[in-house]
Amino acid sequence: MAKNKEPRLPMYAVSVVGLSGTEKEKGNCGVGKSCLCNRYVRPKADDYYPEHTSVLSTIDFGGRVVNNDHFLYWGEVSHRGDDGLDCKIQVVEQTEFIDDQTFLPHRSTNLQPYTKRAAASKLQSAEKLMYICTDQLGLEQDFDQKQMPDGRLNIDGFVLCIDVSKGCNRKFDDQMKIVNSLYSQLAKSKKPIVIAATKCDECVEQYLRDIQTFASHKKNLIVVETSARACVNVDLCFQALIQQIDKTRGKPKIMPYLDAYKIQRQLVATVTDKFEKLIVQTVKDYHTSWKAISNKLKNHPDYEEYIHLEGTRKAKNTFSKHIEQLKQEHIKKRRDDYFSSLPKILNNLLSKLEEIEKLSWTEAQSLLKSRSEFQYWFVVLEHTPWDETEHIDKTNDRRVPFDLLTTAEGEKIYQNHVQHLISEKRRGEMKEKFKKTLERVQFISPGQPWEEVMCFVMEDEAYKYISESDRRDVYSRHQREIVERAKEEFQEMLFEHAELFYDLDLNATPSCDKMSEIHTVLNEEPRYRALQKLAPDRESLLLKHIGFVYHPTKETCLSGQSCVDMKVEQILSNSLVQLDHGRSNLYHNSANIDKINLCLIGREGLAQELANEIRAQSTDDEYTLDGKIYELELLPIEVSPALLLSHSWPSAFKPHGCFCVFSSIESLNFIGDCVGRIRAEFAQSRRDRFLPPLPFILILANQRDGVCKNIPILRHQGQQLANKLQCTFVDLPSGTFPRKFNEFQIKQALRGVLEGLKHNFDVMSPLPSIKDLSETDLRIVMCAMCGDPFSVDLILSPFLESHSCSAGQPGQSNTLILDKIIGDSRKRIQITVLSYHSSIGIRKDELVHGYILVYSAKRKASMAMLRAFLAEVQDVIPVQMVAITDSQADFFENEAIKELMTEGEHIATEITAKFTALYSLSQYHRQTEVFTPFFNEVLEKKNCIESSFMLDISRDGASEGVFPQSPHGHSPAYIYPDSEDDAEAPPPYSPIGDDVQLLPTPSERKCRIDMEGNEYHVLNMPVIDERNHKVPPPVKPKPVLPKHVRKLDPNLLKTIEAGMRSTRRNRTGLGDDLEASDNYAEPVDTLLKSKGFNDVIYAVPDDSQSRAVKMRHPVGVHHGHQEDEENGYDHVSKCQAGRRPSKYKHRSKILFSKTKAYHNRVHSDVSDEETGSEMQKIWKGRGHRGSEEDPLLSPVDPWKGGIDNPAITSDPEQDDRKGKKKKPQKTKESKKQKSKPTKPLYPPTRRNWESNYFGIPLQNLVTPERPIPLFIEKCVDYIERTGLTTEGLYRVCGNKTDQDNIQKQFDQDHSMDLIAMDVAVNAVAGALKAFFADLPDPLIPYSLHPELVEAAKIVDHIERLQVLKEIVRKFPPVNYEVFKYVITHLNRVSQHSRTTLMTADNLSICFWPTLMRPDFENKYTLSTTKLNQSVIESFIQQCQYFFYGGEMVELASAENGPPAHPHSMVEALVPLQLPPPLQPQQIQHPMQPDPLV
Question: CA-to-CA distance for 1041 and 1105, rounded, in angstroms?
């Protein structure tokens, strides 16, 4: 033996024996010898075969594996013991193979019975192959072929297998008998034996105990409980046998089956868990194959261990389950995605509740299929269900499989969708209802937080229904609306105060005094105070407005895209190009006209009668006129009421003129409407084809009897309509004739048509080139306000619809040129259309011959802007005022429109300007002829205007470079005038209607109207009446300015104004440097003014330069203007005389008073001494009524009375002078008042009539028998009988006129019956409150106010009421009885708060200022307003306790807790917003309207 040869491992041969034989002997299954050998030799799960047959064919038995032996060679196993010693074990199984033909044991070389043959210790079989499984037999070449070493084996030990399971169709005792016999044979071999209890996973405990008993009777016989299928204790069995063979090895611990099984299962569970986690981590796609994943995991320890223990089959099953799980998760995700998108799809396709509310799910599916977008949202598969088709893998296809809708989940989603629509509909309704609730809550102010409003609407049904987010959303939307509306109203208010902003120099910076004046005036406006909670936004809007006023441009216009400048540019850039293009192709020759097409329009057969008359005077339709024969084609048209124009002429018929005949007022009205329609139709035709305008002839028909009393009226109305339509009127000739129409009338009408055609030819012919295009005869500026509610086309249409209109010079985008025949010659008129802010921008830079000032009669701001502009226009420049509204009916149906139109006409009357109206719904005035009278006047005054302009330029030292040598020099696109013009009277026709003339024409107006409506003669010259003995204040001559000064120095102006103010303050005495006899102003005759005005306005003496001296405040300047024609003066001579033009604001009391009103508001309190004395005046003029009104109401405008009521109130300056004359007396009164308690906010005098009942002490109105004034009793009785169901009682103000009428009626008759008067309950409530406001002293004495405030501060409820009760007993007896009566009444009113919404809290808010009249100028009073209100509230709530000895009323809270129904306070809390404290500069003189002259 070689030395270097390693020692061979010990080799042991083990024979596994057990019951074998035929089925009769062993049953239908074996005892598990083969499985035990298989599990031990090849422990991998994949190599374990649970079935091993012993019934073989002769061929298989003779094969090399069996080799004609009754034993199997399983191979050898390398074994490592616990002690670390290695060995090899060869395993042999002794069995008995059965012939599959005879079912008897096969014959072999060893014919011994099994018991003896199994105990053989030496085995021999040449070339015997290792057994693997039954499939190996006959296919040995397909399996691993290993031969038994040397063809022989020496057995070293035996494993005796005993089956302990139940079944196999054998008895355990029979098995034990054979085992006994077998053991006996084995024992003879002297070899170690180990008993293996097989199939312990199905064991019978008794069998196991019997084996243990059997083994216990044998020496060194070990029993090992095994299970080849569960792989439990298999190795232990053979290990125990090896230890028996080799005693040197350590004895293994024999473990019971159950313990070993638990350990094995734990191991398997651990390995399985690791493998499953490995699969989950590795496999993410359910499309992954097992082959791919097994190759990927081949060397992974967790994978290999699991394959070893459980086998590939189980691993593949685990993998398949995971793959299926992934697939199901994918399907579930897709299904969830489909179901989640289904509500959205239904919202898109079935969004209307009314369509599906009553449909079943099946019907709804049919409806879905009919939608055009069905294919976009759904897919219909050929094979269903969808989750078993390839559609599950189409992840890019988001369409929903339609068969998914047939599931229960789909139907449930549809039902939920229907319910959602119903819920959303209800939610939307509730949100809108809540929105309306908020709209009804009047006290919600812009910028008010939701938390302050929430508690007042919590009981609302809609509030409870919707969520908090919806509430906040609705409230935010409501806030946005009211904030936007408040800002718009605030901006409109700023426009309405145009005079306040436009009395300044542009391109400058507003001074602090100016800003203070602006804030003082605006603070009186409710629209200003409405943005109190948004003060930064309000200030920003104000500064933005001021910035625009100081630096106006069309880019920064506050109206945005509605800026007039932008719109005019757009319209002119489009329209004028079309006009010029069409005019170049136009040719019309009227000189060769020999055929005239006439349209005859009339009612009741008049048109046909006129046609018959014309034909009777013609010969073969040929008519001879003025020596020329014309062919006439007549088209009579009957106008019916149902259809104003019941017949339209054929397209081939092109009329040259229209004869409009009438014989009654009704037919005349129809004619007017008909002409309007025809002109509207022709207006568009002229734009398209550039046709000349159609001449209209108005003909008055004769009556049958030739005598009619209505002829003069018809003649007058016909002439008015002709003037309005700018057409020819043909009157009846003198004398009588039998027919309706006379030959003279027809000839006059034909001449009118021919003259119209000739005029059209003149204006339509190509423009002559005799003048340079840069030259214009007249320069007119038309002004309109941005944002007015009418289209700019309306004011441009009179020019653009004329074929004499052309574009201005290049660069003048807002200018057009009119070429018109004015008088006897053709004139070129330059019309520049600008916004007011562009017109105000620059002054005195260009020559302007006239202004056309346009305003909307629907907008106060428009009129305010016109006033502000017109006030600074020089009075030598003619003005045409144009009011814009929808129709004539607006004047009679809308008071606001009537008021503004009346004001416009009054201003025009005062300054002798022209006034007309344009109607957006009518075509009457959409023609250039509307402005022909104005152009005539401008042309007449042209020389005077240019002379005044040159004179003004020369005086300012700027004669060079301003006015070119030619008066027709070029002017820029924007003309910014400094002054306005002096104009003639309005046109002789009324702008309002045919039958109503608002104001008489100047020729008719030879007298004026005083305050009482009496007419007096108007003189043509200023008259100085010697009977006027009033001595006016002295006037110091105005210093002469150097000619080289162009503008006054601002500091100098301030100095002069300061001196004038000081003069006003000290006008009771004369200055030291002025003698009393020098330069007194001469008073104008009082006949020229209404009553009360003669104390204010004085004629102004001339200074050394013969120029008028203007006194701003102490002496009003009144310019009596006369018509030049009436006075016989020539314009040029007057202008050459050097008359300096004045401003229109000095010729119009409306303009003057409006401009002056703002100054008076801020500067009325000229001294501390005057402040106290003027307070009574202020409150008298204002007619204040306690808490019902704002103490800072603006004065009533002078035109509010309208045309029908010319009554005019006195001038404010007159009241100022009267008050100041009585200053010594008032000083005494003020001294007396110093000893009295706090000055009340609401002064006692609020009436404008004398009363012997109201405003006198309370004790003078009562008697011991009647402790309550009769007026209070009547009011309370009326209110309690009729008003306890009136919402907002005592909060909603009644009509002030009704309140005054009630008191006046009571003054005259104490027995009046309020029910018979049929007055509103709110008016009676207001009169009752006014009664207390008029008392000299408040009902609650001032002396008790501090005690009441201190009592209100007491925290304890009972103690507070007790103290208040003691204070009430201190009231004067008269006051106590009246206070008790009033509080009892208010308590009864509060008991009806469900209907009136007036709780005790709300009533106290309304009544405490009336009953206590606190001084809001006192800071202490302002800090105690809530306490004063709570005192009155306690009196109302505890009325029985205070006055009738009752018990205290238990309230919801001891401290005036909220009412039972918070929603009842929604509208009742409006008075919570108390008026702000009055500052001294806010107290102003009452602005009574100036008289109209």
Answer: 10
First vs last C-alpha separation in the chain: 158
Residues with Cβ within 8 Å of 1438's Cβ and at least 6 positions away in sequence, in order, are 1361, 1448, 1449
d(CA 1071, CA 1075): 8
Phi first, then psi, for residue 865 (nearest 5°) are: -65, -40
Query: Residue 1081 is which amino acid?
Result: A
The pLDDT-based confidence of 803 (bands split at 50, 70, 90) is low
Q: Which amino acid is at 509?
A: T
Token pair belonging to 447 = 């910028």
Looking at residue 1357, its amino acid is H
Q: Which of 399-413, 750-764, 1152-1166 has the lowest mean pLDDT?
A: 1152-1166
**How crowded is residue 169: how many other Cβ atoms within 10 Å of its Cβ?**
10
Query: Which SS3 state, helix, strand or coil, does residue 1302 take?
Result: helix
How do residues 208-223 score in pLDDT, each as one tens digit?
999 999 888 888 899 9
Predicted confidence at residue 1305, as pLDDT, reads 87
Q: How far apart are CA 626 and CA 857, in angstroms?
A: 48
Q: Are 998 and 992 in contact (CB under 8 A)?
A: yes
H helices of 217-359, in order, are 234-245, 257-282, 290-296, 301-349, 353-356
Burial of 1100 (0-12, 13-18, 19+ CB in 10 A): buried
Contact 160, 194 (CB under 8 A): yes
User: Phi first, then psi: what are they for 73, rounded to 5°?
Assistant: -100, 115
Contact between 404 and 386 under an 8 Å Cβ cutoff? The reply is yes
Residue 330: phi and psi, rounded to 5, are: -65, -45
157-201 pLDDT per residue, tens: 999 999 998 877 788 888 888 899 999 989 888 899 999 999 999
Q: Return the closest-CA partner of residue 802 out of 656, 692, 724, 679.
A: 692
Segments in 617-692 forming alpha helices (H): 665-689
Phi, psi of 1436 (to 5 degrees): -70, -45
Q: Which two tokens stand for residue 820?
A: 């018109």
Of 1304, 1321, 1200, 1189, the closest CA to residue 1254 belongs to 1304
Task: Decide: 1243 and 1175 in contact? Cβ < 8 Å.
Answer: yes
Calpha distance 1201→971 (Å, rounded): 43
Residue type, 454: M
Q: How far is it, in rounded angstroms, from Cα 492 to Cα 1214?
A: 32
Which among 78, 89, 73 is positioned nearest to 127, based on CA atoms?
73
| DSSP line for 405-466 | GGSHHHHHHHHHHHHHHHHHHHHHHHHHHHHHHHHH-TT--TT--HHHHHTTSTT-HHHHHS
Q: Where are the beta strands (DSSP E) in 652-752?
A: 657-662, 696-700, 728-730
Q: How many CB atoms lie within 10 A of CB 1252?
A: 8
- SS3 call for 660: strand
At 709-739, the pLDDT tens digits run 678 888 888 888 887 777 888 988 877 667 7
Is 628 exposed, middle or buried, given 0-12, 13-18 or 19+ CB atoms closer than 10 A? Answer: exposed
Closest CA to 1268 of 1339, 1330, 1333: 1339
Rounded to an integer, what distance in angstroms lies between the CA atom of residue 229 and that of residue 275? 21
Cα–Cα distance between 323 and 319 in angstroms, integer?
Answer: 6
With 0-12 CB in 10 A as exposed, 13-18 as middle and 19+ as buried, what is 1291?
A: buried
Q: For tokens 């199939």, what's the residue?
A: 199
0.85 cut: is pTM over it?
no
Q: pLDDT tens digits, residue range 949-994?
A: 887 766 655 433 333 333 333 333 333 333 333 333 333 333 333 3
What are the residues whose beta carbons fall under 8 Å from the beta carbon of 1299, sequence distance 6 or more?
A: 1185, 1323, 1326, 1327, 1330
Give one DSSP letter per residue of 1195-1247, joined into a string. PPPTTTT-SS-------HHHHHHHHHHTHHHHHHHHHHHHTSSSPPSS-S---
> Which among 609, 727, 604, 611 has a CA at the least distance from the CA of 676?
727
- Rounded to a whole number of angstroms, the CA Rg of the chain reads 59
Return all residues near 1377 (Cβ < 8 A) that are at least 6 apart. Answer: 1262, 1267, 1268
